[in-house]
Amino acid sequence: MVMEYAWLIPVPLFIVFGINILLNKRLKNRTSGYLATGAVAFSFILSTLIFISSLLTGSKFHGSVTWFQLGEHVIKAGYLIDPVSSLMLLVVSLVSFLVFIYSLEFMEDDRSKPRFFGELALFSGSMTGLVLADNFLLMFIFWELVGLCSYLLIGFWMEKSEAASGSKKAFLITRIGDILMLSGIMLMFTQIGSFGFEETFNSFGQLSGDLQTITLLLLFGGAVGKSAQLPLQVWIPDAMVGPTPVSALIHAATMVKAGVYLLARISPLLSSSPLVTSIIAYFGILTALFGAYSALTQKDIKEILAYSTISHIGFMVFAIGVMGYSASLFHLFNHSAFKALLFLAAGVVITETGKHDITKMGNFWKRGKLVPIATLIGCLSLAGIPPLGGWFSKEMILTATMQGGNYILVSLFILASFLSPIYIFRWYSLIFSTNRRKKVGDKSSGYLMVLPIVALATIAGLAGLFNSSFNEWMPWSLHHGSHAILAIGSTLVVLTGFTLAILIYHLKLIDINRIKENTLFEILHKFSFNALYIDDSYTKLGFKAFSFSILASKFDDKYVDGVINAFGAFGRKVSSKSKSFDDIGIDGVVNGVADSIKFSSSLARKIQTGLVRDYSLWILIGTITILIILKISGG
Fold it and tell me: What range(s) does the NADH:quinone oxidoreductase/Mrp antiporter transmembrane domain occupy (predicted)?
C-alpha cells in the first residue's frame, strides 16, 4: 500500500539540502535548482498518490519505531496518514513544486542560488515532516525546523539591513508561541506519560478540567505565534523582505499553515473545553477583522497580501473555534491556491516594473492577458465571489457559525467578509487597471514564472466543484442548506464590497480623495495604515524597556559600582596601613628576637674552641666565681 512509503516524502528534500549546502561552491546555479525541483517533484507525486488513496478508500495508516527510552517511558517516532495529514501533504508538496519551478527563473541571476534552493528544500521537507509526525515531540522538532528555515529565508538577502531585521523579528516573535506550545506538550507528558497523538487523545479526559483548559490554551499559544494571530501577528509584514517565492511558500503552504494544522490535529481534544473553543473563535475572528482592515490602505504590493493572509488564517482559526473543522481545512486548501497565485503574480509585477508601491503602478494589463486573468481568478476566490472555491469555504464557515447560534460572531464574520473584496480589488485595480496610465517596465517574465500562476489559477477556479466531496471525506461533517437566506445575504454583502471597490479604484466614479477630507475617515485611514499601531506600541515598549535598561546601567555605574568602589578604596587604605603596622610592628618584633638570638649565638660560638685546656680554664673560672658568690652571701 502506498501509504506505507509516506515516510519517504521529506527524504529527498533533506538530501538535496545537504548537497546544496555542502557543495555550494562547486554546484552550478542551474544544477542546484534542478536537483531541488526534482526532489520536490518526487514528494509531490508520492503525496498525490497517498491523497488519492485516502480519498478513495478512507483508510488510515500508522507506522512507528522505538525512538528512545525516558525512564520507564518508551518514546516512539513514526508517521500518521489520515484525511487531515494526506490533505496537508498534498497542499505542501503541490505549492512547493510550483514555487520551485517559479524560482528557477526568479532566482536565475542570484549568485547564492544553491544556498537558496537548499534552504527552500529544507523548508518544504520540514513542513512535510511536521505533517507526517505521529506524536507531539516529533511534531515540535519539525515545528522548530520550520521556524529556523523561515529565519534563513526571510533574511536570505542578509546584506540588506531590513532583511536581517525581518528575519530576527520573525524568529523571536514566533519563539514566544513555541515556548507556550512546548510547555503544553510537556504538561501533557507529565500527566499522561506519552507524546503520541492516539495515547494522548485516549487519556486526555483523565486530566482535571483546569489542566485540560491550561494545556489547550498553551497549545493554542503555539498556533497563535506560528500562524500570526493577534497579538503575535507583527512579524508577518516584516517577513516580506525575503524573496517572493519564500513569501508564497510561507503564506500558502508552510509556516503560517502549521498553526492551523496543529489546531485541526488536536480537534478531538477541543470538544472537552467550550471555554477554549470560544477563546479560539474570538481570537480568530478579531484577527480576521484586523488583517482585512489593515490591508485596506497599505501601499506595498506584498504587505497587502501579508495582511490578507493574517485575515484569512484568522478565518481558519475562527472556523476551528466554532467546530467547523472541515470548513477550516477546505478554506486552508483554497487559500493555499489563491494566495500562492497572488504572491507569485506580485513577483512577476515586481520583476517587470522594479516597484513595490501599488500607487505608482497601473496599466499592467497591457503586458499580456495571461497573468492578469489568472490573478483576477485568485482575487475573486479570495473575495468569496461565487462560484469559486473561496465562496464555498466561506459559506461552510458561516454554516458552522450559525450552528453555534452566536450571532455576534456571525456579524463579525460577515463584516470581515465585506472588507475582503474591497482591499483585494483595490490591489488589483491599482496594478492592472488600464485607466491608470502608468509606464510599464521593459522586462518580461518567462514561462517558468507564468505557468505556475496559470496552474494555481486553474486550481482556485475549480476547487469549488469538490466542496461536497471534501466535506463527506473529512471526519467531521456540516449540514448544508439550513441557512440559505443567510448565505444569499452574505453573498450580497461580498458583492457589495466588490462593487464598491470597482467603483472607487477601477471606474473612479467615487472620488476617494474627497472622502479622505472627512476627519473621521482620516482617523480610520491612519489606524488602518498603521495596523492599529500595535507594532508601534511594541516598539515603544521595547524602547522604554531599553531606556529603563540604560537608566539601570547608569544607576549601576554611579551608585552600585560607586558604593562597591568606595568599599574597595577603603579596603585598600586599611590594607596599606595594616601593611605598615605589619612591617614595623609585628615583623619588627619577630625580626628583633631573631637578630638578638643571632647576636648571642655569634658570641657563644667564640667560646666553643674545641680545646680541652680552654674548657678546663672556664670550669676553673666558673668554680672560683661561684665560691666567691657563696662567700659573699654567707654560705
Answer: 133-420
